[in-house]
């Protein structure tokens, strides 16, 4: 039986991946906003608006994570609790 070895922690392209995720999410928001014109009911409109709000919150979180990753790549790391 072979043992599963964990993959090494390669964070070198995390900022790039996060940027792509932000761009994709912004595209999804734009498409959803366009679809509001074709919503069948106010309930459907509210659902689309609520989902877009969650997407905006996710984008905020991804941008914060991008800052953390960029700092880690620059050797600054995150707030060192042990100083």
TrEMBL record:
Keywords: Sporulation. Residues 71-83 have a biased composition (Low complexity). The lineage of its organism: Bacteria, Bacillati, Bacillota, Bacilli, Bacillales. Pfam families: Tlp. Residues 37-83 are annotated as: Disordered. Belongs to the Tlp family. Induction: Expressed only in the forespore compartment of sporulating cells. This is Small, acid-soluble spore protein Tlp. Signal peptide: none annotated. HAMAP family: Tlp (MF_01506). Residues 55-70 have a biased composition (Basic and acidic residues). Residues 40-51 have a biased composition (Polar residues). It is found in: Spore core. GO terms for biological process: asexual sporulation; sporulation resulting in formation of a cellular spore.
